C-alpha cells in the first residue's frame, strides 16, 4: 500500500492527502461489519473480494512531469487541476457503484472496471495523437482490466458501450493505435509468453524516468524485480537477465541494434526488437511461431552464466569478403554492409550491416538459433535445417582478444537470417556470448 493517498470526500467537495493509519480508520467500521461472520483468517481475501468492488482510475498526472509530494501538500495550481480530474474520475466510479482506486498490475486486473481519462481526445479519431497511448505505465492499464471505459477531454463517453472492450469500433481503434491484436486486448494474460511481442508493444511508449522502461513491464511479464530508482539502464539489463533465466522462447533472442552498455548479449531497450526486415518478420510473426510451439525449435535451456549467454546453436564458419575500399575524399560511413561467404556448399551467403569501426576479428561464423532439435531432449544433440525455411542467426566474430578465446556477437543493424540449399543435419555447438 502507498505511504500516502489522495482522499476525496463523499460529497466530492474536498481532496485531502492521508496516510495509511487514516485510511485504516476510514475503513474500520466497514471491515468490522464485513468480517463479523468470519470463521478463519484464511477466508479473509475471498470475503474482501466478494464485498469490495472497486474501479481503477487511469490518467496522465500533468501535461509535463508529475506532482511532487511537497506540491500535493502545498496544493499548487497544477495539483488543484489534477484534483479536479480525480474528482471527476471518482464521480464516474461512484456512478458505477464502486470505490475508486489508483492501483497497478494485479490491482488493475482485479478491478471491476478501469476508467480512463484521455485529456487530448474528443473522439476515437484523436487516438493517434493521444499521449496516454504513448506512455509506458498506461500499457498495463490498457491490457490488464477485463472491463474498461474511455472518457474524452470534456468527460464525454467515447462509446455507447458499458465496456469499451466489447465495442467493435473502439477495439479496432485501440488495435490500430497500439499495434496490439484484438485477441490480446480482450484476453490478455500476464506472463513470460510471447515476450518478444510484448517488448514490441513497449517499444512504442516512453517513460519520464529511464528505469521505468523496465519497471512498467514487471506486471505485464509477471516477473519479480526489485525497484531501485537511480540505477538507470541497469534496470532493463536486470529485467532481461530475469527473463532469460525463466523464458524458454527462442524469439526473445531475436533482436538487433545497440546492446546494453553493461552486457553485449542483452539489448539496450525494447526498441531492439523492432529491427527486422521482411525475411525475419516472416519467421517472427506470432501466427508463425504459435504453430511451431509443439515442435522443438532451438535450445530451450539457454541461460545466463558468468561467461555470458550459454546457448546451443548450429555453428557455420564463414569467410569475410573484404569490403570495397573507401574512395579518396568520399564521405566516411559509420556502418557498412558486410558479406559472409560459407565454406560449405549447403548454405547461402549472409549479408549484414554493422559498425565498420568495430570489426577486429580474424574468424567469422553465424550461429543458427531456431533449428529443429532432435527428439532426445538432451544437450549436445543434433539439429536439422530445412531448405524451405529462413532461420534466425547471429553474426559472430573471434580474435585473440575475445573473452575466453571464444566467439563474440557482432552488433548488426537488423536481425539476420540465413537459408540452406539442402537439408542439413549436424551436431549443435555450445557458445557463450
Q: What share of the residues lie within helices? A: 25-40%
The protein's oligomeric status is: single chain
- Which blocks of ≥5 consecutive residues have pLDDT under 50? 97-104, 289-294
User: Taking Cα atoms only, what radius of gyration do you get, to the nearest Å?
Assistant: 26 Å
Mean pLDDT: 81
Specify the number of helices. 14
First and last CA, distance: 41 Å
Largest sheet: 9 strands, antiparallel
Q: Give the CA-based shape.
A: elongated
Helix and strand composition category: alpha+beta
Percent of residues in β-strands: 15-25%
Counted beta strands: 18
Describe the fold and architecture.
The strands form four sheets. Strands 7, 8, 9, 10, 11, 14, 15, 16 and 18 form a nine-stranded antiparallel β-sheet that branches. A four-stranded parallel β-sheet has the order 4-3-5-6. A three-stranded antiparallel β-sheet has the order 12-13-17, with no helix packed on it. A hairpin with a 2-residue loop joins strand 7 and strand 8. It is of the alpha+beta class and 433 residues long. It is built from 14 helices and 18 strands.
Helix-strand blueprint:
Blueprint: E1 4-8, E2 15-19, H1 20-35, H2 44-51, E3 54-58, H3 69-74, H4 77-95, E4 99-101, H5 106-109, E5 113-117, H6 138-143, E6 148-151, H7 168-178, H8 182-187, H9 195-203, H10 212-215, H11 218-221, H12 234-246, H13 278-284, H14 286-292, E7 303-305, E8 308-321, E9 335-342, E10 350-355, E11 363-368, E12 372-373, E13 382-385, E14 391-398, E15 408-409, E16 416-418, E17 424-427, E18 429-432
Amino acid at each position: 500500500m502507498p505511504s500516502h493517498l489522495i482522499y476525496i470526500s463523499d460529497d466530492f467537495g474536498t481532496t485531502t492527502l492521508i496516510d495509511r493509519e487514516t485510511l485504516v480508520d476510514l475503513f474500520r467500521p466497514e471491515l468490522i461489519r464485513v468480517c463479523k461472520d468470519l470463521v478463519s483468517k484464511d477466508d479473509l481475501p475471498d470475503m474482501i473480494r466478494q464485498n469490495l468492488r472497486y474501479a481503477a482510475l487511469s490518467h496522465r498526472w500533468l501535461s509535463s512531469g508529475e506532482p511532487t509530494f511537497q506540491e500535493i501538500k502545498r496544493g499548487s495550481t497544477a495539483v488543484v487541476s489534477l484534483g479536479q480530474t480525480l474528482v471527476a474520475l471518482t464521480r464516474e466510479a461512484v456512478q458505477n457503484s464502486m470505490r475508486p482506486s489508483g492501483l497497478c498490475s494485479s490491482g488493475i486486473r482485479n478491478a471491476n472496471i478501469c476508467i480512463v481519462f484521455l485529456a487530448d481526445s474528443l473522439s476515437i479519431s484523436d487516438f493517434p495523437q493521444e499521449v496516454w497511448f504513448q506512455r509506458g505505465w498506461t500499457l498495463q492499464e490498457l491490457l490488464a482490466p477485463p472491463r474498461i471505459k474511455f472518457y474524452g477531454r470534456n468527460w464525454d463517453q467515447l462509446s455507447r458501450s458499458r465496456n469499451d472492450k466489447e465495442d467493435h469500433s473502439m477495439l479496432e481503434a485501440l488495435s490500430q493505435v497500439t499495434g496490439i491484436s484484438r485477441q490480446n486486448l480482450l484476453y490478455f494474460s500476464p506472463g513470460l509468453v510471447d515476450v518478444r511481442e510484448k517488448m514490441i508493444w513497449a517499444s512504442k511508449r516512453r517513460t519520464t524516468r529511464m528505469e521505468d522502461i523496465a519497471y512498467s513491464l514487471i506486471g505485464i511479464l509477471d516477473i519479480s524485480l526489485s525497484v531501485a530508482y537511480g540505477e538507470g539502464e541497469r534496470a532493463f539489463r536486470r529485467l532481461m537477465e530475469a527473463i532469460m533465466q525463466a523464458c524458454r522462447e527462442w524469439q526473445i533472442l531475436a533482436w538487433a541494434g545497440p546492446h546494453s552498455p553493461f552486457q553485449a548479449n542483452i539489448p539496450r531497450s525494447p526498441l531492439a526488437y523492432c529491427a527486422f526486415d521482411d525475411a525475419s518478420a516472416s519467421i517472427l510473426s506470432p501466427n508463425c511461431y504459435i504453430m511451431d510451439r509443439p515442435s522443438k525449435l532451438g535450445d530451450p535451456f539457454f541461460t545466463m552464466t558468468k561467461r555470458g549467454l550459454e546457448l546451443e546453436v548450429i555453428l557455420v564458419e564463414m569467410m569475410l569478403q573484404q569490403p570495397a575500399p573507401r574512395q579518396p575524399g568520399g564521405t566516411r560511413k559509420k556502418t557498412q554492409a558486410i558479406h559472409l561467404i560459407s565454406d560449405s556448399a549447403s548454405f547461402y551467403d549472409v549479408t549484414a550491416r554493422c559498425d565498420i569501426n568495430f570489426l577486429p576479428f580474424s574468424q567469422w561464423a553465424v550461429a543458427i538459433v531456431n533449428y529443429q532439435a532432435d527428439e532426445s531432449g538432451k544437450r549436445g544433440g543434433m539439429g536439422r535445417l530445412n531448405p524451405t525455411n529462413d532461420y534466425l542467426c547471429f553474426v559472430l566474430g573471434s580474435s585473440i582478444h575475445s573473452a575466453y578465446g571464444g566467439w563474440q556477437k557482432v552488433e548488426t543493424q537488423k536481425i539476420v537470417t540465413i537459408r540452406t540449399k539442402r537439408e542439413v543435419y549436424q551436431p549443435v555447438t555450445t557458445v557463450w556470448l
